[in-house]
UniProtKB/TrEMBL annotation:
Name of protein: Precorrin-2 C(20)-methyltransferase
Keyword Endoplasmic reticulum tagged: no
InterPro entries, per the entry: 4pyrrol_Mease (IPR000878), 4pyrrol_Methylase_sf (IPR035996), 4pyrrole_Mease_sub1 (IPR014777), 4pyrrole_Mease_sub2 (IPR014776), CobI/CbiL (IPR012382), CobI/CbiL/CobIJ_dom (IPR006364)
Signal peptide feature range: none
Listed NCBIfam families: cobI_cbiL (TIGR01467), PRK05990.1 (NF004647)
Pathway where this protein functions: Cofactor biosynthesis; adenosylcobalamin biosynthesis
EC number: 2.1.1.130
tRNA processing as UniProt keyword: no
Family note: Belongs to the precorrin methyltransferase family.
Length: 243
């Protein structure tokens, strides 16, 4: 009886993978990973130089390629069928062999594997290897602490309604906005309405080749890189400030 091992790969630079993740990937004989149609897949790119020549690969190709509202009926139906199918395929494979599923960042933090994780409970042994979340690599790219003292940090999805984004941006100190892509113009408007745009950074391809770190207010409104995160740093009490 084999296992399914979900391997957190960290923010993108292979040097930031854990020793355990590196060892697991290099020793893998069966590797699965998510990707969009016509693309190699970000997780697969991270481990390009690490896989053996005899590895069997199982690309799990998403049926949708744009960031639409997570509660859209069409989105839910398409992805539910996709995850059902791959959970079944992986469970069959794991009856005989270990299957390593690659996951950018940390699997338990908005990782796509969690949709398979819930479907595989009780069917096969599952191991999850922790990874550095992508946002950590991004705020290190800015070179400023994301939060200090008693700052409240909020993680938002760019797919949220604009009014909800604005409300939460007003109510928090430090902000991380994921799933920007085609939602970036909406995120930008919400930040402006909340009075936070001038403090916002856009980090594209954090820790990876082609990394770009810019003030969000300084880029063209039509510039909507997909693999990017928006950050607003908190301004809390410094650790060495007087009590």
């Amino acid at each position: 009886m084999g296992r399914i091992i979900c391997c957190g790969l960290g923010p993108g630079d292979p040097d930031l993978m854990s020793v355990r993740a590196d060892r697991t990937v290099r020793g893998a004989k069966h590797v699965a990973y998510f990707r969009k149609k016509g693309r190699p897949g970000q997780a697969r790119c991270i481990v390009e130089s690490m896989l053996g020549s005899d590895v069997a690969e199982y690309p799990m190709e998403y049926p949708v390629t744009t960031e639409i509202a997570f509660d859209s009926p069409d989105y839910v139906q398409l992805l539910a069928g996709f995850y059902d199918e791959w959970a079944e395929r992986l469970a069959r494979l794991a009856r005989a062999v270990d299957v390593v599923v690659l996951c950018e960042g940390d699997p338990y933090f908005y990782g796509s594997f969690m949709h398979l994780h819930t479907r595989l409970q009780g069917r096969v042994e599952i191991e999850v290897i922790a990874g550095i979340p992508g946002m950590v690599g991004c705020w290190n790219g800015v070179g400023q602490p994301i939060a200090l003292g008693d700052d409240v940090t909020t993680v938002l999805m760019g797919t949220l309604p604009e009014s909800e984004l604005e409300r939460r941006m007003r109510d928090s100190d430090a902000l991380v906005v994921m799933k920007t892509g085609r939602n970036l113009a909406k995120v930008r408007r919400a930040l402006a309405s909340a009075g936070r745009l001038d403090d916002a950074w856009l980090v594209e391809r954090g820790t990876m080749p082609g990394e770009r770190v810019v003030r969000l207010a300084d880029i063209d409104a039509a510039d909507c890189p997909y693999f990017a995160i928006v950050l607003v740093h908190g301004k809390g009490r410094l650790p060495d400030a007087a009590e």
